[in-house]
Specification:
Helix content: 10-25%
Oligomer: single chain
Structural class: alpha+beta
Bound molecules: 2'-deoxyguanosine-5'-monophosphate
Distance between the termini: 31 Å
CATH class: Alpha Beta
CATH architecture: 2-Layer Sandwich
CATH topology: HIT family, subunit A
Largest sheet: 5 strands, antiparallel
Order of helices and strands: HEEEHEE
Number of strands: 5
Length: 114
């Protein structure tokens, strides 16, 4: 999608500190990290948010989550854990309209969020 920041990261038009990529997804460090570990896992395909997932996306969602878990472990979060977050639309605090999983770790995180 033309004016989507994350589509531009997927295409390489905007640089990002990439951690992992394959045919379906991309993982990269968040530009504004809120924890020592803070990266995003996104589908290459432009899906606006979790409300727009279709039944045929189930396998993709499993892949996104599994890769988020695998990379969190690789980045040192296996023992103490991490937070896996999907913000959705305005009430959910979503600012970039391209589905993404935040993975935050490396420090204790408060709950509930504000
Ligand atoms: P959300 O509020 O859930 O939509 O989070 C969007 C996140 O995306 C936010 O933590 C900052 C991050 N972000 C926005 N623009 C860029 C960018 O150009 N590069 C990278 N690496 N991260 C970005």
């Amino acid at each position: 999608m033309d004016n989507c920041i994350f589509c531009k990261i997927v295409s390489g038009a905007i640089p990002a500190k990439r951690i992992y990529e394959d045919d379906e997804l991309l993982a990269f460090h968040d530009v504004s990290p809120q924890a020592p570990v803070h990266f995003l896992v996104i589908p290459r395909r432009h899906i606006r948010n979790i409300m727009e997932l279709a039944p045929e996306d189930v396998a993709l969602v499993g892949h996104l989550l599994h890769k988020a878990q695998e990379l969190a472990a690789k980045l040192g979060c296996a023992e103490k854990g991490a937070r896996f977050v999907i913000n959705c639309k305005s009430d959910g605090g979503q600012t970039v309209d391209h589905l993404h999983i935040h993975v935050l770790g490396g420090r204790p995180l408060a709950w509930p969020p504000g």
